[in-house]
Structure prediction request, 296 residues.
Amino acid sequence: MPPKPQILILGQQGQVAWELQRTLPLLGNTTVLGSQDLDLADTKKLRDTIQTLRPQIVVNAAAYTAVDKAESDRDNAKAINHTAPQLLAEETAKLGSLLVHYSTDYVFDGTKTGAYVENDATNPLGVYGATKLGGEQAIQAVGGDHLIFRTTWVYGTRGKNFLLTILRLAAEKPELKIVADQIGAPTWSRSIAAATAQVIGQWPQKPSSGLYHLSAAGVTSWHGFANKIVDLSRQIDPDRTLAVDKILPIPATDYPTPAARPSNSQLDSSKLWQTFGVQLNNWERDLDLAMQPASY
Ligand SMILES: NC(=O)c1ccc[n+]([C@@H]2O[C@H](COP(=O)([O-])OP(=O)(O)OC[C@H]3O[C@@H](n4cnc5c(N)ncnc54)[C@H](OP(=O)(O)O)[C@@H]3O)[C@@H](O)[C@H]2O)c1
Prediction:
């Protein structure tokens, strides 16, 4: 039996990184570094860390994810989302190691009808999407072993996300107004981590470097997502008192944000299925699982 690989996980407290810390120890010996251990903007320390630890696999789940703040903080967003993945790609390539990285539907402008495939034309609407696209392209240009998973509408039982925001607002307010003209598939961070482990588990027997869409199946709007969260909350815990009575659909134009969002965030994940036999659940099924008390 070959020795277990050394796996470095970056992004300790993040939604996806947190779940990776539960799944990846099954595959190898994991080391986890958060921003307090390694600031990804510190380019020298980043290179030194990879060369000192010499991991066979680096899973980068750290990112500058503050989409609106990025509009006025381009340099920092670029340092974390573009330059750091480029350096990770360079250092892992030197070692002959695998770099696993996450990207986003925000590389697209959302004008396509139907789900985006990996080689659809990109056209980010904001700084976050542009810097994430820069990171993808830099990793591909370096040309070492890599897997880039573009995911979308990530939520989980910890961190900052739509599920936890709606649960909080529904407990406080009788009426919520939620955007109904942006569509996508809410994707559970735990399912992203499980799928990542399933793919890494096939490495290096099935080396297929490249870019893959990794999204829950099905489609809804933010308004549909909010309705489902409230319905499930009432179903799962009938004793919980929610103040909310009405969830009103609004257009995105009634909820202006510094960064524009794509109106269509659907990602077609069939390449992942065809290459690795990995597929995520329908978003409603996963949301039900995520909201069960046992998932917290
Ligand atoms: N959230 C979404 O809806 C969404 C959608 C599509 C794609 N994605 C992508 O999926 C991946 C995972 O996202 P997520 O939702 O799990 O992110 P998240 O919960 O926002 O976590 C991001 C992590 O990055 C770390 N980080 C930020 N700046 C850093 C720095 N300078 N140095 C080191 N670490 C730093 C943060 O550390 P601290 O907590 O210590 O600051 C945090 O642990 C990212 O690549 C993201 O772009 C996310």
